[in-house]
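Worked Example 4.2. Consider the chain below.
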Amino acid sequence: MDEYDVLVIGGGVAGLQASIDLTNAGFKVYLVEKMHALGGHTAQLYKIAPQLIDSSKVIEDLSSKAFRNVKLALYSNVGSVEKSGDYFIVEVEEEPKYVSWSKCNGCLKCIEKCPIKTSYNSMKIVNIPAIYTIPGNSLSGKPVIDGKRCLYFKGESCRICREICPVNAIDFSQKPLTSTFKCRFIIIATGFNMYNPSKIGEYSYDKHPNIITGLELELISNPLGPTKGSIVKPSSSKPPKSVAIVSCVGSRSEKHLKHCCRIGCTTSLKHAYYILDKLPEAEVYILYNDMRVPGRSYEEFYRFARDKGVTLIRGIPSEIRGASDEEVSMKIYDEASSKLYRLNVDLVILEVGMETNINEVKAINIPVGEDKYPESIKPILNTIETPIPNIFVIGCAQAPLNIVESITQAQAATSKIIAKYRGCID
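Applying the procedure from the previous section yields the following structure tokens:
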């Protein structure tokens, strides 16, 4: 049986940073990522606030190092984990990609010709074919076929991708693969799920095309995205003249998520910057509960966005609805000015909350609190180590965090494992 020192579950920025640091220290690392590309949610961002760095540069730097030194299992899940003495016996299940990556040259002609187009992760503005790469700046460059949507696997005669592939990389006969190995430590860095705005019926996300999420705005703002970087209304593909950005959608709510997502305020300011940078004549409103932007350079970013002409309204609409096919309407009471706003805007951006997806690691029964986030052995002194010895949870799987905080937790977990391995600490 193969032996590794550490299993890392999750290939976002936290998992990548932990993997790189551990391999640099001489550890053998096995990295499992459920998608077929690395980078997680960060790879779907256009820029990272407050410095407005292109996310592609961060992901490329991390991924290039991980590709060189880490055993990677993409498009894979951890099937089982069992304790055996000082080791964990791990079974990893790799899903069939139906594309031979060793042959694929990345021309993506298959994607252009695929007749199936459906939404990606329920996002209304991003339609992808049955053979696809992940939208954004994720690294792999190689596509996979979604067997649940592909016409071939529904018993139809379509084989367009195989017929057009110049290197015969399409392989409909691929089967799931299972690998078994043992390791001493496990780091869970599975990240988070965006809260589903469809659960908040009064915000009409499913009812009007011009109500989109912040993540959808990220993708259309990116020159590599579906609109080549143009911010447009989904209803008409025309630029909006007015935009309302609504914070805390699903967050700090007794009915939905009780916790603050920690990134919503900064993200709303960043999105206002995107819009005014590309559409300087647009009217932009940010609707918020409290403006929380702690951290180095964040307050300056807030002032920068405000000075660009963003209208800040301290209040959250109770209802958002379509005024017409092109416009969206809402009422907001501004607590700061005691003024009632009646807004009719062309585009609404919902900054939705985040929730841990620790429950997706079904093979490991991590104790969780009332907020569904994992318990730690010491809530203040040691937040990343779970009650199960030698298992760590980092990044947004552990708590709502920003990118810098997630990377810092990865570095902390690495230090803990090195110290434990060398017998410096229990």
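The radius of gyration is 23 Å. The helical segments are 13-24, 55-69, 109-113, 160-164, 214-221, 264-278, 298-307, 403-421. Compare this with Example 4.1 before moving on.
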